[in-house]
Each structure stands twice: as C-alpha cells, then as structure tokens.
Amino acid sequence: MSDQTATRTDPATIEAQPAVWTKKHLLDVDELSRAEIEAVFETADAMKEVLGREVPRVPALRGRTVITLFYEPSTRTRASFELAGKALGADVINISAGGSSIEKGESLIDTVRTLQAVGADMLVMRHPSSGAPYLVARHMHASVINGGDGCHAHPTQALLDAYTIRSRLGDLSGRRIVIVGDIAHSRVARSNIWALSTLGAQVTLCAPPTLLPPALRRRAEDDDGELLAMPPVRVETDLDRAIEGVDVIMALRLQKERMSGGLLPSLREYASLYQLTEERLARAQTGALVMHPGPMNEGIEISPAVARSLQSVVEEQVTNGVAVRMAVLYLLARGKV
Ligand code: CP
Question: Does the CB atom of residue 77 touch ligand 1 within 6 A?
C-alpha cells in the first residue's frame, strides 16, 4: 500500500488516522475505492485486537448515539452493530418497525427526523424498499449506514465477506469466486460483486435463468457467458461447470420474501441442480472456502455436511462482522461528506 493510501492504526488506543476515508454515510460499496475498502480492513484488524482484550472496549465513540432502525427481521446485522457500537463506547438504541410508532402510520422521514431529534449520531437501517437509506441520508445530519435495502445493497455484509476471504487467502487479486443462488433478489450478491471486483477477484454468478437479473439472464443465454457490464462478471447456469477450480463458493438462500412466485418448478429440482454438496465442492480448489451470509436453509442451497465442513467459514463471517462494523462506525464518525 502506498503512503498516500495507508491507514495508520495504533491498536493499543484505536487512534486510527485513515488517510483516505472522508465519507459520512455508507450506502453501498459501489461508492468505495479499493483504498477505502482496504482502510476498512486495516481498521477492522485493529478492532479484532480490541475484541481479543480482556475488556473488549475502547472509548472511541463515547458520547455518541448509534440507533439501529430495522423494518425487516435480522439476527446477525443488528446484533453485530449493537455489539460494535457498545465495544466502541457508544450508546446504542435498537428500534424495530413492530412495536414502534411506525405501526401507527408514522412515515419513514418522520421517524428518522424523530430519531435525529433525540440525538442520533449514526443510524443503521434496514428497509424492504431499495433506495430507502439514500432518501434518509438526504434528510438527516447523522451518518446513515445501509444494513440492507430491498434487493439493492448490503454493504457491510460484502465488506465482512471480503475481509473473511482476505483473512484466509490474503490478497483477493485474481482469486476466483462463485456466487450461487438467488442472484436476482440478493442485495448481498450485488454488493459482493462490487466489493470483490474492486479488490481484483474474478466473480462468477451461478443461478437458474429465472433467478438472474434480466440483463444477466440474456447474457447467460449467449455462448461464452461473458458479461461486459460494470463491474465485469461471468454468468453460468450450470453449477458443476461454475465451481470448477474456484477458490471460494458463496451460497445464497432463496429470498422467498422478495419473489413474486412461480420462478422455480420445485424446491426439490432447484436443490438437485444448485445445492452445494460435497460432490460439487470436490470440483473446486482443494480447501476452497465455503461461505454463506446467513440465514442458511440447509438441505436447499447447501447440504448439512458442507455447511459443517472444515471448509465452511460461515461462523467466521459472523464473528468478523463485529470487527468490520466497528471499523465502519469508527471511520464514518470521522467522515465529512
Ligand atoms: N446476513 C444477514 O444480513 O443476516 P441477518 O438478516 O440475520 O442480519
């Protein structure tokens, strides 16, 4: 890393001075440069050191208030942001749509204005509508972090996924990664395409044509599967072919809550063609990493044996989520634009 892009981090105090970070919001990874993603990783390394201490806390965000506002269910994202905020000394308040005044008809904008009025410095939000965090960022002085918006983006998931690969395999440049499953409805896939490609990995998307976005679907029907879009990815409808020699396989669940129905003949047929099994995994590089953002539906997109195999880093992804989200909160607290 050059001097210009270096992030100087003292793990003893977490007095990081991210040379490249100026952002106030994190809405997606498509707005991050490689140097900014590497700044998150380097800061997350320091946060991991903090989390390994006897008292895993630093006062970096003391006096700040982090509010999580979730209009959709979540286990990992919400819990890890809460732990991340507390480990940095922030006050953390969790709000779900159910049980809040949203149930009485309060609009999204009125809700976030209310949260700003009570002192939110940072808002982590998940919403079923793609683009909702962008709208909120225009109405708030607080930093907005997208914790998942519709089918659009899940930036911290992609950052923790890339961080986990980097922890295991080192530099991502030239690494071959296949993302298999319901690409069409997956915000995780879209954010990962950006993060992994920005870091130099070669991404292949694998799904039945009905679970590919229409533009990719048309390309998959062509002979060579190359897609010269931005960023470039390969598209493959045959998992046995897609998995050949790859370094990482990322399985995704069927996002039934976002499907209009009728996209698959049957779950049984889908599982027979697209489930990550031990037989299929054997076609990848020896020791290839198995990843899943969770929640997993074992027996559909991934076999129980693969989910529990030594190649699975699914729990490591969840653990790394805390350090990566600490890094994001820490960097955004110092951002300006
Ligand atoms: N991966 C992910 O976003 O999980 P949760 O829905 O549990 O937050």
Answer: yes
